[in-house]
Amino acid sequence: MRWITRERPKIDRLACPWLIKRFVDAGAEFIYVPFNDVLPMAAQLNAIPFDIAGVEYTHYDDLCTFDYIIKKHHIEDSAVLALAPIVRGADTDRHDLAPQASGLWAISAGMAYDEPDDHKLLEKGMLLYDSLYSWAKYLQHVKHTQQPFENQLLDIFNKFLQREKDTKKIPAWAKELKEIIQDQIDTNLNLSLKGLSETLQVHPAYLSREFSKYFDNLSFGDYIRKLRIDKAIQLLSSTNHSLTEIAYLTGFSDQSHFTRIFRVHTGKSPSAYKKSLGKK
């Protein structure tokens, strides 16, 4: 069967052909054309249009076309289901849905930039999703640091940390990390321990394990949430922003998540806290 969609694919228009070929129609042929030509060419070629508005195979609510194909064709493969939030997060700019989503977007955008031929791009995309599928099926729980050489590196890091403890000095990486977090907390809503470890050139496993010792006995996630709640308190006190706007400005995925974390830190909901400010 022929399938047709818009030209210059990046996420859904590469992921969907892979899913179709592997689980729906092994003999599928894919055609990429300019946006305005998709529906006329679909009728002319008797092809199924996908990933454009107004057709069956498209986005629904917050789900992408990849999700719809899984539902439509009753695909229950556990690895495919694991890939779904990664593809959805990359395709809809919701990188909070899966840690791998931002990486998939970066690789896909780079491939599309480097390869002007859509069909060659599709060939590369098939290899990419084959590899991602293998990771999801066989390697999700394998850690990079399980390699003997990297375990040796961790031992070295541990010895280095012990020397720092003996001298009772705050390590240079901790000082630099605190400055980076303070500089980026308002502008970078996707701060991650992995990304910061690359910036510092410190192994992420070491950074994760030692973080709390230099940051108020808090894990990385708890420390970031504390800073964002502090920022939210400041905005509640000094601006007329709505709670939804404050949730967005402080890096929370939605208002309900913001409210829950705010209550954990302050014992009050944001609205109750704001009302208490007016009584002072």
In short:
One of its GO terms (molecular function) is DNA-binding transcription factor activity. This protein has helices at residues 12-23, 38-45, 65-72, 78-91, 101-114, 118-139, 148-167, 172-184, 193-200, 204-214, 220-238, 243-249, 255-266, 270-278; strands at 2-6, 29-33, 48-49.
Structural summary, described in words:
GO terms for molecular function: DNA-binding transcription factor activity; sequence-specific DNA binding. By secondary structure, the chain is mostly helical. It folds into 3 domains: 2-139, no CATH class; 145-215, no CATH class; 222-278, Arc Repressor Mutant, subunit A, CATH 1.10.10. Helices cover 63% and strands 4% of the residues. It is built from 14 helices and 3 strands. The chain has helices at 12-23, 38-45, 65-72, 78-91, 101-114, 118-139, 148-167, 172-184, 193-200, 204-214, 220-238, 243-249, 255-266, 270-278; strands at 2-6, 29-33, 48-49. Strands 2-1-3 form a 3-stranded parallel sheet, covered by helices on one side.
